[in-house]
Amino acid sequence: MVTTNFPETADIETSSDDYASRFAGNIGAWLLKIQEEATLKMLAPHPNAKILDVGGGHGQLTEPLINKNYQLTVLGSAEICQARIKKFVDANLCSFQVGNVLDLPYPNDAFDVVISYRFLAHVTQWQNFLTELTRVAKKAVIIDYPTIRSINSIAPYLFKLKKGLEGNTRPFICYQEPEILDYFKSLGLKQTERYAQFFMPMVVHRALKSPGISSVLEQSIRLTGLTSLLGSPVIAKFSKN
Predict the structure, then answer these.
(1) Global pTM?
(2) 62, 66, 155, 224: least buried by Cβ within 10 Å?
């Protein structure tokens, strides 16, 4: 059991091998590829940018960002959070630092872009969290979050199914999207890009165990416009004015 005095430490769980097992196999690779492609597209206007990945010890973006020549720093809530990316840290391909996500150890505008995935869904002080991400970002913040206006709204009813399939799932917070947009607006940022990843809950795709079927299913629904309207989790880019 890892202990820390920091108030928000969701990444200790998401940086673990146990959590990574939820993205194992071909279906896991497909789920992460959707996330990777959307992220790199949003980062395209920022070549060679200095990027801070808050809670990024899960390693889902580490190698793709390194391969695109971004200057990457990963911040984690404890030393154990670097376990899955240690080979990149040891090779000096990125850096890792322990810190408090509600009091990031960097000056204002220290990074061109700040990214944080798999964190907002498990944070309690979400306004303070977003304020800190914004403070150290010079150009943009990119986050992901599940929305209430989606099939994820029935997440409590799917929890037993998720638990049975994944064995290590946990409840998460769904957001009213306007409250996130309004809060970023109060910080001087506006949403410049948005990508809803999946119409069907990810647990359904894990149950199907077929990237081919899942891909056809999701692409067909996306063409109707329903994914943009009701898809989740959402990846969103907020840019400074």
Answers:
(1) 0.92
(2) 224
Segment 29-87, tens digit of pLDDT: 999 999 999 999 999 999 999 999 999 999 999 999 999 999 999 999 999 999 999 99
Q: Is the Cβ–Cβ distance between 149 and 230 less than 8 Å?
A: yes
Q: What is the largest CA-CA distance in the chain?
A: 47
Quickly state the pLDDT bin for 168 (edges 50, 70, 90).
Answer: very low
Bridge partners for 96 per DSSP: 74
| Gap between the Cα atoms of 76 and 198, Å rounded | 27
CATH of 11-240, one of 3.30.465.10, 2.60.120.10, 3.90.1170.40, 3.40.50.150: 3.40.50.150
